[in-house]
Design brief:
single chain, mainly alpha, two-stranded parallel ribbon, two-stranded antiparallel ribbon, 6 strands, 61% helix
């Protein structure tokens, strides 16, 4: 099989599963040899290790992100619903995706992809990637810090005092004062930020694949945890639209391939196929785009919350969709390995992740109940609660 350079993934919401490609690279993502040089051939052991590691890493953010979306999705106070930490800042609160958002998502993603394609055609690739590195450096630090927060809460020594901090930036004064930035954090958050910054500096300076994966896993877990579909129908619209999007841009044009080769950012998980030969200095990477993790992952997380709403103390739909994801990703790898061509993973993941739970719901007679399940955003829930309280107060007055 041919190999792919480290940048060969789509820099937006979805990407093909790229475990093969065109050029070999060094650990910094620069071309090591051109296509005229003999192609690297991975050993069966190295290939199996790379594929298995990618599948395992893809499952981690889906599983733990889904669990965190249940335990903390509606909690603003630490300790509620078994939550180990609190959403003190609006940026950490879950964001609900509606049907309208889902329908527009593939169009926005396509415009973003094509815009990046034009940028890389017109402007210098070096300067664009420098700006992107700085952008993802900041985002990666925040994402990794938020991911580490529950773990830090568990291991932080109880005898060390915790100090509270607040970063507040306002505009105007008096009654016209408006908050621009209001970020609250404490000592534990500071430690998480310091550790995350060290990883960020490591990534910017070395572009090492381990640092890349730490940021990538953090992005994926935060996406599964904080992006909430409001119902199953919205999930079907989103996955269906991105199914078409992924297939079109992978098989229909060279836009995705061109952008993928030019884009350097931790928006994919990578694992070297020559790890057994070269150790941590390995440079022949198999990779998986984060979109192939987050997009099915938020649908799987929704089904877990639906399981919880049934109050039957079972996780039937979650485990079904989770196993369906493993099946779909395994099928993607098999097809790619058989036909020696990079594959859009959503081509296989979408039918599996939607089809398996729907069949189970049909067999259990819960299909109608599944599609009637509805979630609301925290803001809408608060408005609804205030309206209900006002109505009850009016009834009491009467």
């Amino acid at each position: 099989m041919a190999d792919v350079d480290q940048g060969s993934v789509l820099p937006s919401e979805t990407s093909p599963l790229v475990l093969d490609g065109l050029n070999t690279t060094d650990s910094n993502g620069t071309d090591a040899v051109n296509a005229t040089v003999a192609k690297f051939v991975a050993t069966p052991e190295g290939t199996a290790l790379a594929y298995g590691s990618l599948v395992f890493m893809a499952l981690l953010p889906i599983f733990f992100g889904a669990l965190r979306s249940v335990s903390c999705g509606k909690s603003k106070v630490a300790g509620e619903n078994g939550c180990d930490y609190e959403y003190r800042n609006s940026s950490d609160m879950p964001e609900t995706i509606t049907g309208r958002d889902a329908a527009r998502f593939p169009i926005i993603a396509s415009c973003t992809l094509f815009g990046l394609y034009l940028f890389f055609k017109i402007f210098s690739q070096e300067y664009i990637n420098l700006l992107l590195s700085m952008y993802f450096f900041v985002l990666g630090i925040l994402a990794l810090s938020h991911t580490m927060s529950p773990f830090m809460n568990r291991i932080f020594p109880a005898n060390i005092p915790i100090k509270q901090y607040q970063l507040l930036f306002t505009q105007g004064s008096g009654e016209t004062k408006e908050e621009i930035v209001n970020y609250e954090f404490d000592t534990k958050d500071m430690i998480c930020l310091v550790i995350s910054t060290v990883v960020g500096v490591w990534y910017v300076l070395k572009k090492h694949w381990i640092a890349n994966n730490l940021f990538g896993l953090a992005f994926a877990l935060n996406g599964v945890e904080l992006l909430h579909l409001n119902n199953v129908s919205t999930g079907c619209i989103l996955l269906g639209g991105l199914f078409v999007y992924d297939v079109f841009w992978v098989f229909g044009t060279n836009v995705m391939v061109t952008v993928a080769k030019s884009f350097e950012a931790p928006i994919k998980l990578v694992f070297p196929q020559d790890l057994l030969e070269k150790g941590l200095a390995a440079n022949q990477f198999a990779m998986l785009g984060l979109g192939d993790i987050v997009i099915p992952g938020i649908f799987i997380a929704l089904l877990l919350r639906f399981d919880v709403s049934l109050k039957k103390n079972t996780r039937t739909y979650f485990y079904t969709s989770f196993l369906a994801y493993i099946f779909g990703l395994g099928l993607t790898i098999w097809v790619m390995h058989t036909f020696k061509h990079a594959q859009p993973a959503l081509l296989y993941l979408v039918p599996a992740c939607i089809g398996f739970p729907v069949v189970v719901a049909l067999l259990k007679g819960e299909l109608t109940e599944m599609f009637r399940y509805e979630e609301v955003s925290p803001e809408d829930a608060a408005v609804k609660e205030e309206t209900t309280e006002s109505t009850e107060a009016e009834k009491k007055d009467k």
